[in-house]
Amino acid sequence: MFLSLFSGVLVIALAGGIAATYGYREYIRPGPLAIAKALEIEKGLGTSGIAAKLEKEGVIVNAEAFSTAVILTGSRGRLKAGEYEFPAASTMREVLDLLVSGKSLIYKVSIPEGWTSAMAMARIDGDPVLKGGATTPPPEGAIMPDTYVFKRGMTRHQLLEDMQKAQTKLLDEIWATRKSGLAIRSKEEAVILASIVEKETGLASERPLIASVFMNRLAKGMRLQSDPTIIYGIAGGKGKLDRPLTKADITTPTPYNTYTINGLPPGPIANPGRAALEAVVNPPPTAYLYFVANGTGGHAFAATLEEHNRNVTKWRNIEGNAANAAAAEEAESVETAPQPAPVKIEQTVRPGSETPAVTRAVQKDTASGKKAAKTKSNSRPASRRARIPNPWPKSER
To answer: Whole-structure pTM over 0.85, yes or no?
Structure first.
């Protein structure tokens, strides 16, 4: 009888060993997925519900075997909800490890510096992963331009709250480092001026210099005369015009037109980034009051009107040479081909400054009463600078 009992135990043990060996092989065997597959595991499914969904979606072969593996590995209650990407041929062990890790898919949305809140909302509303209906754009200047990561299930409202909290935190941090004696008196004014600086240049190295120009002009009671403020006064949250600026635009008062108002406009014209904010609260000590395009993508700065006029003349010559070269190339192409390709002139200004060349022939300096140099174009004033239209993709500004 003892021998019979021993034989029975041996058979059971052998069968268990065979089953365990078979089960482990199934556990590490490549799964049925031919290609990678993204799948959302909802909250509250439980082990059996998750196993059933994985089998139904073709991620695993057998739901019962998966549930058993969850129990044997001590993973019960540790599987996390989320959206996962299961690689092709994922083994049962790999599937289980992924669900325990909680490493679900990450999505991104980027808001570039200098975008208006309306432009940011258009991108957020158009995102196919974010949930919830369209929301009202936040106040201009209230969100921090950055790349934000989120998981499926994030709502548009939650993301906007995160963006506004990030901007508030950033502004508090930067404002605490401000110089004394600035011409701006509050964080709100810092955001307004930083938004103008952000739209004036595409070169990071120029932001502090442009900030110093505006700070100096404010301190002297001179008008800022910034073209992007004209554009915002007309286009608002669109951020750009679908036509060139005209003389009428420059002389027509709006709350934002810094050619016709003193001091700062009533609010920001965009959402400035960290660099623009830092430039405004810590501008370098310069005597600059003017800047004009230099033909290489940047600007020439001047402390006096006479120096500025010389820079304007240089820019006028560059602009004229470029126009002549373009005309000559176009004429040559007409002679050599029946349908010539359009000529492209290199453009040099950052997004948001989509303004053409100078219109007003003479500009009177607000401090000295002197007149600036004349220009040949008939589309906008020289004021303190002139520039070529923006080469950056308009979709990014």
So the answer is: no
